[in-house]
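Protein 1 of 2
SEQ + STRUCT:
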Amino acid sequence: MLGLLLVDHGSRRQESNQQLTVVAERLRALKPDCLVAHAHMELAEPSIAVAFAELAQRGASEVRVLLYFLGDGRHSREDIPRLVAEAAARFPQVAWRVAPPLGPHDLLAQLLLMRGGFNP
Protein backbone atom coordinates (compact mmCIF):
# COMPACT_ATOMS: atom_id res chain seq x y z
CA MET A 1 0.00 0.00 0.00
CA LEU A 2 1.20 3.52 -0.79
CA GLY A 3 1.77 5.96 2.05
CA LEU A 4 1.92 9.72 1.62
CA LEU A 5 3.92 11.65 4.19
CA LEU A 6 3.28 15.39 4.05
CA VAL A 7 6.16 17.36 5.61
CA ASP A 8 6.54 21.04 6.46
CA HIS A 9 9.17 22.90 8.46
CA GLY A 10 7.23 23.10 11.72
CA SER A 11 6.54 26.13 13.86
CA ARG A 12 6.38 27.18 17.48
CA ARG A 13 2.87 28.48 16.67
CA GLN A 14 0.29 25.70 17.02
CA GLU A 15 -2.02 27.52 14.60
CA SER A 16 0.62 27.24 11.87
CA ASN A 17 1.17 23.55 12.56
CA GLN A 18 -2.58 22.94 12.41
CA GLN A 19 -2.60 24.09 8.78
CA LEU A 20 -0.57 21.02 7.81
CA THR A 21 -3.18 18.82 9.48
CA VAL A 22 -5.84 20.46 7.31
CA VAL A 23 -3.82 19.87 4.13
CA ALA A 24 -3.28 16.24 5.16
CA GLU A 25 -7.03 15.82 5.58
CA ARG A 26 -7.52 17.21 2.08
CA LEU A 27 -4.97 14.72 0.72
CA ARG A 28 -6.89 11.90 2.42
CA ALA A 29 -10.06 13.03 0.65
CA LEU A 30 -8.29 13.24 -2.71
CA LYS A 31 -6.42 9.91 -2.34
CA PRO A 32 -8.63 7.62 -0.22
CA ASP A 33 -6.70 4.60 -1.51
CA CYS A 34 -3.49 5.84 0.17
CA LEU A 35 -2.37 6.00 3.77
CA VAL A 36 -1.72 9.63 4.72
CA ALA A 37 0.32 11.07 7.58
CA HIS A 38 1.93 14.42 8.24
CA ALA A 39 5.10 15.51 10.02
CA HIS A 40 7.11 18.56 10.88
CA MET A 41 10.83 18.68 10.13
CA GLU A 42 11.48 20.38 13.47
CA LEU A 43 9.94 22.48 16.25
CA ALA A 44 6.73 20.42 16.51
CA GLU A 45 5.34 16.92 16.62
CA PRO A 46 4.83 14.56 14.97
CA SER A 47 8.39 14.19 13.75
CA ILE A 48 9.32 12.59 10.45
CA ALA A 49 10.50 9.47 12.32
CA VAL A 50 7.18 9.11 14.17
CA ALA A 51 5.03 9.67 11.08
CA PHE A 52 7.12 7.35 8.89
CA ALA A 53 6.86 4.62 11.53
CA GLU A 54 3.09 5.14 11.70
CA LEU A 55 2.76 4.61 7.95
CA ALA A 56 5.01 1.54 8.00
CA GLN A 57 3.07 0.03 10.92
CA ARG A 58 -0.23 0.70 9.12
CA GLY A 59 1.02 -1.35 6.15
CA ALA A 60 2.71 1.05 3.76
CA SER A 61 5.07 -0.75 1.40
CA GLU A 62 6.16 2.55 -0.14
CA VAL A 63 6.23 6.07 1.29
CA ARG A 64 6.28 9.16 -0.89
CA VAL A 65 7.34 12.21 1.06
CA LEU A 66 5.47 15.30 -0.14
CA LEU A 67 7.19 18.55 0.75
CA TYR A 68 5.02 21.45 1.82
CA PHE A 69 7.87 23.82 0.96
CA LEU A 70 7.99 26.42 -1.79
CA GLY A 71 11.68 26.47 -2.63
CA ASP A 72 14.42 23.96 -3.30
CA GLY A 73 16.71 24.77 -0.40
CA ARG A 74 18.88 22.99 2.12
CA HIS A 75 15.94 21.48 3.97
CA SER A 76 14.46 19.89 0.83
CA ARG A 77 17.83 18.80 -0.59
CA GLU A 78 19.65 17.67 2.54
CA ASP A 79 17.84 17.77 5.86
CA ILE A 80 14.57 16.06 5.00
CA PRO A 81 16.10 13.29 2.84
CA ARG A 82 18.53 12.57 5.71
CA LEU A 83 15.73 12.47 8.31
CA VAL A 84 13.61 10.23 6.08
CA ALA A 85 16.55 7.89 5.45
CA GLU A 86 17.15 7.63 9.19
CA ALA A 87 13.47 6.89 9.81
CA ALA A 88 13.31 4.39 6.94
CA ALA A 89 16.34 2.46 8.23
CA ARG A 90 14.06 0.89 10.86
CA PHE A 91 11.77 -0.38 8.07
CA PRO A 92 13.97 -1.79 5.28
CA GLN A 93 10.94 -3.40 3.62
CA VAL A 94 9.45 0.05 2.90
CA ALA A 95 10.57 1.83 -0.27
CA TRP A 96 10.58 5.61 -0.13
CA ARG A 97 11.34 8.75 -2.07
CA VAL A 98 11.18 12.47 -1.44
CA ALA A 99 9.26 14.54 -4.00
CA PRO A 100 10.48 17.99 -5.01
CA PRO A 101 9.13 21.12 -3.30
CA LEU A 102 6.12 22.96 -4.70
CA GLY A 103 7.59 25.76 -6.75
CA PRO A 104 8.12 27.25 -9.17
CA HIS A 105 5.05 25.87 -10.92
CA ASP A 106 2.30 27.30 -13.12
CA LEU A 107 -0.38 26.11 -10.68
CA LEU A 108 1.25 28.13 -7.89
CA ALA A 109 1.33 31.21 -10.11
CA GLN A 110 -2.38 30.71 -10.81
CA LEU A 111 -3.07 30.30 -7.10
CA LEU A 112 -1.23 33.54 -6.35
CA LEU A 113 -3.38 35.36 -8.88
CA MET A 114 -6.54 33.84 -7.41
CA ARG A 115 -5.48 34.88 -3.90
CA GLY A 116 -4.85 38.38 -5.25
CA GLY A 117 -8.40 38.65 -6.56
CA PHE A 118 -7.69 37.77 -10.19
CA ASN A 119 -9.49 35.12 -12.19
CA PRO A 120 -6.65 33.41 -14.09
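Protein 2 of 2
SEQ + STRUCT:
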Amino acid sequence: MSYLGKVKPTVALTSDDITDGAVVEAKIGGNAVTSAKINDGAIVNADLNTSAAIALSKLATDPSNASNLSSGTVPTARLGSGTASSSTFLRGDQTYAAAGGGFNSVQVFTSSGTWTKPSGITKVVMHVIGAGGAGGGGRSSYNYAGSGGGGGGTAIKFLDVSSISTSTITVAAVVSGPAKDVAGSTGGASSWADGTNTVTGSGGVGGPRGGANIGVAGGAASGGDINSPGGNGPTGGPGGNIGSQDGGSGGICANGFGGGPGASNYDVTSDNDAYGYGHGGAGGAKNKSGGDSAGGIVVVWEYK
Protein backbone atom coordinates (compact mmCIF):
# COMPACT_ATOMS: atom_id res chain seq x y z
CA MET A 1 0.00 0.00 0.00
CA SER A 2 1.38 3.41 -0.90
CA TYR A 3 1.09 6.40 1.52
CA LEU A 4 2.52 8.89 -0.93
CA GLY A 5 0.94 12.25 -0.28
CA LYS A 6 -0.94 10.88 2.69
CA VAL A 7 -0.42 10.75 6.44
CA LYS A 8 1.07 7.47 7.74
CA PRO A 9 -1.30 5.97 10.26
CA THR A 10 -0.05 5.44 13.85
CA VAL A 11 0.13 1.81 14.90
CA ALA A 12 0.11 1.00 18.59
CA LEU A 13 2.25 -1.98 19.55
CA THR A 14 1.40 -4.26 22.36
CA SER A 15 3.66 -6.70 24.21
CA ASP A 16 2.16 -9.42 22.06
CA ASP A 17 3.61 -7.72 18.96
CA ILE A 18 7.22 -7.87 20.35
CA THR A 19 9.06 -11.12 20.22
CA ASP A 20 10.72 -12.15 23.48
CA GLY A 21 14.31 -10.85 23.48
CA ALA A 22 13.78 -8.73 20.35
CA VAL A 23 14.57 -5.39 22.11
CA VAL A 24 18.31 -5.14 22.61
CA GLU A 25 20.30 -2.66 24.72
CA ALA A 26 21.17 -0.56 21.62
CA LYS A 27 17.48 0.11 21.02
CA ILE A 28 16.97 1.62 24.52
CA GLY A 29 17.67 5.32 24.75
CA GLY A 30 19.98 6.75 27.38
CA ASN A 31 18.19 7.42 30.69
CA ALA A 32 15.06 6.02 29.11
CA VAL A 33 14.40 3.64 32.03
CA THR A 34 13.55 5.64 35.15
CA SER A 35 12.62 4.55 38.64
CA ALA A 36 9.02 5.41 37.78
CA LYS A 37 9.15 2.68 35.09
CA ILE A 38 10.24 0.01 37.63
CA ASN A 39 7.60 -1.58 39.78
CA ASP A 40 8.22 -1.57 43.51
CA GLY A 41 9.97 -4.80 44.50
CA ALA A 42 10.65 -5.73 40.88
CA ILE A 43 14.42 -5.94 41.43
CA VAL A 44 15.28 -8.85 43.72
CA ASN A 45 18.56 -10.06 45.20
CA ALA A 46 19.06 -12.52 42.33
CA ASP A 47 19.13 -9.59 39.87
CA LEU A 48 22.22 -8.07 41.54
CA ASN A 49 25.72 -8.86 40.30
CA THR A 50 27.44 -10.77 43.10
CA SER A 51 30.86 -9.38 42.13
CA ALA A 52 29.74 -5.76 42.04
CA ALA A 53 30.29 -3.34 44.95
CA ILE A 54 27.83 -0.66 45.97
CA ALA A 55 29.67 2.60 46.42
CA LEU A 56 29.43 4.21 49.85
CA SER A 57 28.06 7.37 48.19
CA LYS A 58 25.07 5.33 46.99
CA LEU A 59 24.02 4.38 50.54
CA ALA A 60 21.65 6.50 52.57
CA THR A 61 23.79 6.14 55.74
CA ASP A 62 27.42 5.26 56.36
CA PRO A 63 27.45 1.72 57.85
CA SER A 64 30.98 2.24 59.21
CA ASN A 65 29.76 5.06 61.44
CA ALA A 66 28.89 3.57 64.85
CA SER A 67 26.18 6.19 65.39
CA ASN A 68 24.21 4.63 62.50
CA LEU A 69 24.09 1.19 64.13
CA SER A 70 20.76 0.58 65.76
CA SER A 71 21.11 -3.15 66.46
CA GLY A 72 23.33 -6.15 65.95
CA THR A 73 26.85 -6.99 67.12
CA VAL A 74 30.04 -5.63 65.63
CA PRO A 75 32.55 -8.49 65.11
CA THR A 76 35.53 -8.25 67.48
CA ALA A 77 37.87 -8.38 64.49
CA ARG A 78 36.50 -4.95 63.50
CA LEU A 79 37.15 -3.38 66.90
CA GLY A 80 40.95 -3.41 67.10
CA SER A 81 44.17 -5.28 66.46
CA GLY A 82 45.24 -8.23 68.56
CA THR A 83 43.28 -11.17 69.92
CA ALA A 84 40.01 -10.66 71.74
CA SER A 85 39.32 -13.10 74.58
CA SER A 86 37.89 -13.32 78.07
CA SER A 87 41.31 -12.35 79.51
CA THR A 88 42.01 -9.34 77.26
CA PHE A 89 40.53 -5.86 76.98
CA LEU A 90 40.42 -3.20 74.25
CA ARG A 91 42.73 -0.29 75.06
CA GLY A 92 42.29 3.30 74.00
CA ASP A 93 44.76 2.82 71.14
CA GLN A 94 42.45 0.14 69.67
CA THR A 95 44.69 -2.79 70.57
CA TYR A 96 43.84 -5.78 72.75
CA ALA A 97 45.97 -6.33 75.84
CA ALA A 98 45.94 -8.73 78.77
CA ALA A 99 44.07 -7.48 81.80
CA GLY A 100 46.50 -6.29 84.44
CA GLY A 101 46.88 -4.38 87.68
CA GLY A 102 45.94 -5.30 91.19
CA PHE A 103 47.31 -7.53 93.91
CA ASN A 104 47.66 -11.16 92.89
CA SER A 105 49.75 -13.16 95.37
CA VAL A 106 52.41 -13.07 98.11
CA GLN A 107 55.55 -15.09 98.81
CA VAL A 108 56.91 -15.17 102.37
CA PHE A 109 60.50 -16.23 103.11
CA THR A 110 61.46 -17.08 106.68
CA SER A 111 64.59 -18.85 105.44
CA SER A 112 66.88 -18.25 102.48
CA GLY A 113 65.76 -19.39 99.03
CA THR A 114 64.91 -18.21 95.51
CA TRP A 115 62.03 -15.99 94.50
CA THR A 116 60.56 -17.12 91.17
CA LYS A 117 58.19 -14.78 89.36
CA PRO A 118 54.71 -16.26 88.82
CA SER A 119 53.12 -16.02 85.40
CA GLY A 120 51.64 -12.63 84.64
CA ILE A 121 53.36 -10.77 87.50
CA THR A 122 54.89 -7.44 86.46
CA LYS A 123 55.51 -5.60 89.75
CA VAL A 124 56.32 -6.39 93.37
CA VAL A 125 56.50 -4.61 96.70
CA MET A 126 58.97 -6.22 99.10
CA HIS A 127 59.73 -5.92 102.80
CA VAL A 128 63.29 -7.00 103.65
CA ILE A 129 64.00 -7.23 107.39
CA GLY A 130 67.27 -8.12 109.10
CA ALA A 131 67.59 -10.11 112.32
CA GLY A 132 67.78 -8.40 115.68
CA GLY A 133 70.88 -8.54 117.84
CA ALA A 134 71.00 -10.87 120.84
CA GLY A 135 70.75 -9.35 124.31
CA GLY A 136 73.90 -9.12 126.41
CA GLY A 137 74.40 -11.46 129.35
CA GLY A 138 74.15 -10.12 132.89
CA ARG A 139 77.20 -10.05 135.13
CA SER A 140 77.71 -12.89 137.53
CA SER A 141 79.02 -10.44 140.10
CA TYR A 142 77.75 -7.05 141.15
CA ASN A 143 74.26 -6.11 139.96
CA TYR A 144 75.04 -5.27 136.34
CA ALA A 145 72.39 -6.23 133.78
CA GLY A 146 73.12 -6.73 130.07
CA SER A 147 71.91 -4.31 127.39
CA GLY A 148 69.24 -5.25 124.88
CA GLY A 149 70.15 -6.05 121.28
CA GLY A 150 69.25 -3.61 118.49
CA GLY A 151 66.37 -4.24 116.12
CA GLY A 152 66.98 -5.25 112.50
CA GLY A 153 66.70 -2.70 109.69
CA THR A 154 63.73 -2.72 107.28
CA ALA A 155 63.88 -1.86 103.57
CA ILE A 156 60.63 -1.50 101.58
CA LYS A 157 60.93 -1.44 97.81
CA PHE A 158 58.54 -1.16 94.83
CA LEU A 159 60.04 -2.87 91.78
CA ASP A 160 59.04 -3.47 88.16
CA VAL A 161 59.96 -7.11 87.51
CA SER A 162 58.90 -7.31 83.87
CA SER A 163 62.48 -8.21 82.91
CA ILE A 164 63.30 -10.14 86.12
CA SER A 165 62.47 -13.84 86.46
CA THR A 166 64.24 -14.85 89.70
CA SER A 167 65.97 -13.30 92.69
CA THR A 168 68.20 -14.69 95.43
CA ILE A 169 66.61 -14.28 98.85
CA THR A 170 68.77 -14.26 101.98
CA VAL A 171 67.03 -14.39 105.37
CA ALA A 172 68.99 -13.83 108.57
CA ALA A 173 68.51 -16.47 111.26
CA VAL A 174 67.80 -16.07 114.95
CA VAL A 175 70.86 -15.12 117.01
CA SER A 176 71.10 -17.13 120.21
CA GLY A 177 71.50 -15.24 123.46
CA PRO A 178 74.88 -15.51 125.19
CA ALA A 179 75.71 -16.88 128.60
CA LYS A 180 76.14 -14.56 131.56
CA ASP A 181 79.13 -12.22 131.38
CA VAL A 182 79.14 -12.45 127.53
CA ALA A 183 78.06 -9.82 125.01
CA GLY A 184 75.31 -10.65 122.52
CA SER A 185 76.13 -11.19 118.83
CA THR A 186 75.01 -8.87 116.05
CA GLY A 187 72.14 -10.05 113.86
CA GLY A 188 72.65 -11.03 110.23
CA ALA A 189 71.39 -9.18 107.15
CA SER A 190 68.45 -10.21 104.97
CA SER A 191 68.39 -9.27 101.29
CA TRP A 192 66.83 -9.42 97.83
CA ALA A 193 69.41 -9.66 94.99
CA ASP A 194 68.27 -10.06 91.37
CA GLY A 195 71.54 -9.14 89.64
CA THR A 196 70.48 -5.53 89.15
CA ASN A 197 68.78 -4.54 92.38
CA THR A 198 70.01 -5.30 95.89
CA VAL A 199 67.70 -4.48 98.81
CA THR A 200 69.08 -5.10 102.28
CA GLY A 201 67.94 -4.97 105.90
CA SER A 202 70.99 -5.23 108.14
CA GLY A 203 71.03 -6.85 111.56
CA GLY A 204 70.86 -5.06 114.89
CA VAL A 205 73.98 -4.81 117.05
CA GLY A 206 74.28 -7.29 119.90
CA GLY A 207 73.84 -5.98 123.44
CA PRO A 208 76.95 -5.59 125.63
CA ARG A 209 77.32 -7.66 128.77
CA GLY A 210 76.31 -6.21 132.10
CA GLY A 211 78.40 -3.33 133.35
CA ALA A 212 79.05 -1.70 129.96
CA ASN A 213 76.21 0.75 130.60
CA ILE A 214 75.76 1.56 126.89
CA GLY A 215 72.93 1.06 124.44
CA VAL A 216 73.48 -0.24 120.92
CA ALA A 217 72.26 0.73 117.45
CA GLY A 218 69.64 -0.96 115.38
CA GLY A 219 70.50 -2.29 111.94
CA ALA A 220 70.59 -0.04 108.89
CA ALA A 221 68.70 -0.60 105.62
CA SER A 222 69.59 0.15 102.01
CA GLY A 223 68.29 -0.18 98.46
CA GLY A 224 64.65 0.44 99.36
CA ASP A 225 62.29 3.28 98.61
CA ILE A 226 61.92 3.37 102.40
CA ASN A 227 64.97 2.47 104.50
CA SER A 228 64.05 2.27 108.18
CA PRO A 229 66.73 1.52 110.79
CA GLY A 230 65.95 -0.81 113.67
CA GLY A 231 65.37 0.53 117.16
CA ASN A 232 68.28 0.94 119.54
CA GLY A 233 68.90 -1.65 122.22
CA PRO A 234 68.57 0.09 125.62
CA THR A 235 71.31 -0.15 128.21
CA GLY A 236 71.03 -2.51 131.14
CA GLY A 237 70.46 -1.25 134.64
CA PRO A 238 73.35 0.32 136.55
CA GLY A 239 75.26 -1.56 139.20
CA GLY A 240 74.65 -1.41 142.90
CA ASN A 241 73.40 -3.55 145.71
CA ILE A 242 69.85 -3.85 144.35
CA GLY A 243 69.33 -7.53 143.63
CA SER A 244 66.47 -7.13 141.18
CA GLN A 245 68.04 -4.94 138.51
CA ASP A 246 66.39 -5.46 135.09
CA GLY A 247 68.22 -6.05 131.83
CA GLY A 248 67.66 -3.71 128.88
CA SER A 249 64.73 -4.45 126.59
CA GLY A 250 65.52 -5.54 123.05
CA GLY A 251 65.34 -3.00 120.23
CA ILE A 252 62.14 -2.74 118.20
CA CYS A 253 62.13 -3.50 114.46
CA ALA A 254 59.78 -1.19 112.56
CA ASN A 255 58.52 -3.83 110.16
CA GLY A 256 54.84 -3.94 111.02
CA PHE A 257 54.76 -7.76 111.22
CA GLY A 258 54.04 -8.02 114.93
CA GLY A 259 56.04 -9.64 117.64
CA GLY A 260 58.32 -7.75 120.00
CA PRO A 261 61.54 -7.72 121.96
CA GLY A 262 62.28 -9.88 124.93
CA ALA A 263 61.07 -8.98 128.38
CA SER A 264 63.27 -7.00 130.71
CA ASN A 265 62.64 -8.79 133.95
CA TYR A 266 64.84 -10.20 136.68
CA ASP A 267 62.37 -12.98 137.43
CA VAL A 268 64.15 -16.21 136.55
CA THR A 269 60.94 -17.61 135.03
CA SER A 270 60.59 -14.77 132.52
CA ASP A 271 61.53 -15.31 128.87
CA ASN A 272 63.79 -12.57 127.55
CA ASP A 273 63.91 -13.98 124.01
CA ALA A 274 62.48 -11.82 121.26
CA TYR A 275 59.55 -12.95 119.15
CA GLY A 276 58.08 -11.93 115.81
CA TYR A 277 60.64 -10.78 113.22
CA GLY A 278 63.64 -8.49 113.43
CA HIS A 279 63.44 -7.57 117.12
CA GLY A 280 66.42 -7.58 119.49
CA GLY A 281 66.71 -9.91 122.45
CA ALA A 282 66.54 -8.47 125.97
CA GLY A 283 69.62 -8.14 128.15
CA GLY A 284 70.03 -10.61 130.96
CA ALA A 285 69.63 -9.50 134.55
CA LYS A 286 72.37 -10.14 137.08
CA ASN A 287 73.80 -13.62 136.66
CA LYS A 288 71.38 -14.38 133.77
CA SER A 289 72.00 -15.12 130.08
CA GLY A 290 71.04 -12.71 127.31
CA GLY A 291 67.92 -13.22 125.23
CA ASP A 292 67.72 -14.66 121.71
CA SER A 293 66.94 -12.21 118.93
CA ALA A 294 64.15 -12.62 116.39
CA GLY A 295 65.22 -13.69 112.91
CA GLY A 296 64.69 -11.74 109.71
CA ILE A 297 62.01 -12.13 107.05
CA VAL A 298 61.46 -11.21 103.39
CA VAL A 299 57.88 -10.72 102.17
CA VAL A 300 57.19 -10.18 98.45
CA TRP A 301 53.75 -8.83 97.48
CA GLU A 302 53.06 -9.59 93.80
CA TYR A 303 50.97 -7.56 91.36
CA LYS A 304 49.84 -8.01 87.76
